[in-house]
Amino acid sequence: MREDGKEKKMANSLKEEFLRSQDEKGKSTAFSFLDLERYALPLLKEAGVEEAELDLRLLLQEAFSLDTKDYLFGKREAVFTLYRKRAEEKPALSSSRVTGDLALSSSADEEPDSALNRFFSFLEKRLHRIPLSQILGRQEFFGLSFLVNENVLSPRQDTECIVERILEEEEKWKSLGAQDKRSGKKIELIDESVGVAGCEALSILDLCTGSGCIGLTLAKNLHCKTVLLLDKSDKALEVAKENYRRLFLEQESAKEEWKCSMLSSGREPDPNRIREQGLNPSLHFLESDLFDALPSFMEEKGISAFDILVSNPPYIRSDVIETLDAEVALHEPVLALDGGGDGLDFYRRIAKEGKRFLLPGGRVYLEIGYDQGTSVKDIFQKEGYREVEVFQDYEGRDRGLYAVSPT
Ligand code: GLN
């Protein structure tokens, strides 16, 4: 996150203005979170921030490292008193706070004034319509916390329905037993102790992966042998790699530690417990303009083709981008949004070039814009894909395309 001199100055003057207003009320440094809210809320509303109340609470919680319960209970107390009290309670607090994804970035014994500075710096950014996710540096997707920054599209809840659809379908096929509906192939039964019985390990290609939210969530939830995350932007791939590291490698080392402690305690590791935590598939990252660099990479890695091709490609019409919310239009990467003159450029390329990378019976799942169902369906049907179908998000709008490889 950038913080140039000008931004810092503005954050300082917001803080000074706030402190002056409290002085005038005779509160000096005895102000509460409620006072901070009363000062900042009108500013956020005036700047056009839609969910101003919620955003404000989350920024305050983040700046002061408070969970929702502590925040709501302490809202009327003097901020600095509450902060000091927490510092005294620190040992008890730290042990009860290790759960969950909330990154408690500050230590409880730092000066309360640094937390206040942090809040005003967040506020200043939000007034510039920098998305909340970029200020917090994370966005939740499908129950997982993803690192985000200005180089990736922040994961949207809308996109979860694509992941949901894939998981549902895989579940269905798994329950069909040993016969693979798609290829008629016999499914090799996999050892119960290492994978999901009756289901072949999948190879998945996630195009325009951005933060990696789709591919990594699938890797977490499915029995995969290969997951390839591809993006044109090296900066986006850096984010995807970091998310992989956080979601898989850090947890993997925790798992190892757990196994070691089980062994040293003389108890047999419980295979159920290992299965629950899943297998780590082989994850690949590739910088490529859609399929351009894919053939040579697959050859090098010995990957023949994919069972699933998934993507949330850029699909906004070029002329619509500047009319979107300021958060998106000014602060999210245009590269992740711009789908060309009619918004359909990527669907044409994926439909045309994608088939040669799919296994027989391989499936395509794409996010689409709410008004693109008919056009995208048409593109895929004309390219010979089978079972082409548009599906809806949780609000009933067209949001996804499903298609089966022509072969
Ligand atoms: N749904 C995104 C938005 O709200 C656009 C995503 C895309 O172009 N893939 O802006």
UniProtKB/TrEMBL annotation:
One of its GO terms (biological process) is methylation. Pfam families: MTS. It comes from the Bacteria. Residues 203-250 form the Methyltransferase small domain. SUPFAM superfamilies: S-adenosyl-L-methionine-dependent methyltransferases. GO terms for molecular function: N-methyltransferase activity; nucleic acid binding; S-adenosylmethionine-dependent methyltransferase activity. PROSITE patterns: N6_MTASE. Residues 1-25 are annotated as: Disordered. This is Methyltransferase small domain-containing protein.
